[in-house]
Amino acid sequence: MEFQHELIIPNEGFPFKVFLFEGGNGNYVREKHWHTSVEIFAVMEGRLDFFVNKDEYPLKAGEQIIINSNEIHSIHAVEKNKTVVLQIPLKQFEDYFTAQRYIRFRGQEELVDKKMASLLRKLYHVYSERKIGYEFRTISIFYEIMYILVKDYRVTETREKDIRHSRRLDALSKITTYMREHYREELKLSDVAATFGYSDAYLSRMFQKYAKINYKTYLQDIRMAYAYRDLLNTDHTISQIALDNGFCSSRGFSGEFQKRYGLLPSEMRKQINEKGQKNAID
After folding, report:
1. Beta-carbon contacts of residue 255 (< 8 Å; ≥ 6 apart)
2. Domains and CATH numbers, the chain
3. What are the residues whose beta carbons fall under 8 Å from the beta carbon of 147, sequence distance 6 or more?
4. What is d(CA 9, CA 16) in angstroms, rounded to the nearest whole number?
5. What number is the average pLDDT over the span 215-224?
6. Helical H runs in 72-159?
7. Are the beta carbons of 117 and 64 closer than 8 angstroms?
8. What residues have CB less than 8 Å from 248, skipping those under 6 apart?
9. Distance from chain centroid for Cα 253
10. Euclidean distance between the first and final Cα of the chain, in Å?
11. Which element (helix H / strand E) includes 82?
12. Is the alpha carbon torsion for 151, 160, 107, 102 positive or negative?
């Protein structure tokens, strides 16, 4: 199976992640991947081509698509586009599961829903503008979207084969969820394997087969994602950020950060602060 598991980290202080699609400049391909979160793409400008399992869904401005948990998909952005993406962790729907850790929405049958598209655009604008009281407005729009999803889009009749397919990937998703909850700890491979009743070798093979990455690298990816978020959103020292996110030392964190982003954390923070000051002046 040639697809990867995608790590999703919610926006700071919110139970979801909202952002503009990274392929907005066009000439971009996101290869086959999956995640446990429910994902909605709303195209505001341009177009995208979605591939869900073996089916193709071209999207143009004003259309959106819902990607279900554990649904394998890829995206081709041939031309420039402006697309809002909302990712909702599966646990947000746990009161509405139709089977154990299973919920499904009509994701491809209703590409045009003006109310949903309007709410997604509004959610992104309110969140990104961050005017006074935006936290309350943002969360209220999010819950309106959740209400529409469970009321109008939720599929109440499920097929056993769909549930079985989802469970093939669910085992690893439970482990990665556990890792995200405990990433600040030492979290040895042997300890995680024992927690879930696997041998070290079996868990290692599971990561290579389904996530296309080794356990250690995946754990570092989680730690780095949270550390990067702290760098953007807090004034904590580099040393504190490193220790808060499971790194053994600030030196080790800085070296790993530079390998990934081409800058030291201190240099990245300086750029962020200078950009913030410029925007404030403008």
Report:
1. none
2. 4-158 (2.60.120.10), 183-275 (1.10.10.60)
3. none
4. 8
5. 89
6. 114-129, 134-148
7. yes
8. none
9. 23
10. 50
11. strand 81-88
12. positive
CA pair distance 154, 97, nearest whole angstrom:
10
User: What is the rounded distance in angstroms from the CA atom of residue 225 to the CA atom of residue 221?
Assistant: 6
One-letter identity of residue 190: S
Residue 86, H or E segment: strand 81-88
In sequence order, which residues have a C-beta less than 8 Å from that of residue 4 and are 6 or more positions away? 31, 32, 33, 34, 211, 212, 213
Distance CA 243, CA 21 (A): 31
Q: How many CA atoms lie within 13 A of 275 on its CB side?
A: 7
Confidence of residue 152 (pLDDT cuts 50, 70, 90): very high
Query: What is the 8-class DSSP label of residue 212?
Result: S
Tell me the C-alpha to C-alpha distance, in Å, between residue 96 and each of 128, 164, 174, 202: 29, 19, 18, 32
Identify the DSSP state of 33.
E
Burial of residue 70, with CB atoms counted within 10 A of its CB: 0-12 exposed, 13-18 middle, 19 or more buried:
buried
Cα–Cα distance for residue pair 191/189, rounded to 1 Å? 5
Q: Which two tokens stand for residue 18?
A: 């909202």
Could you count the other beta carbons within 10 Å of the beta carbon of residue 57?
16
Task: State residue 31 phi and psi, 5-degree precision.
Answer: -70, 175
Distance CA 257, CA 21 (A): 23
Q: Which amino acid is at 136?
A: F
- In this predicted structure, what is the pLDDT of residue 38? 95
**Helix (H) / strand (E) containing 38:** strand 38-52
Q: Kindly give, in sequence order, each residue whose CB lies less than 8 Å from that of residue 79, ignoring residues fewer than 6 positions away.
A: 26, 46, 47
Residues 6+ apart with CB under 8 A from 80: 24, 25, 26, 45, 46
pLDDT digits (tens, 9 = 90+) for 23-65: 999 988 888 888 889 999 999 999 999 988 778 999 999 999 9
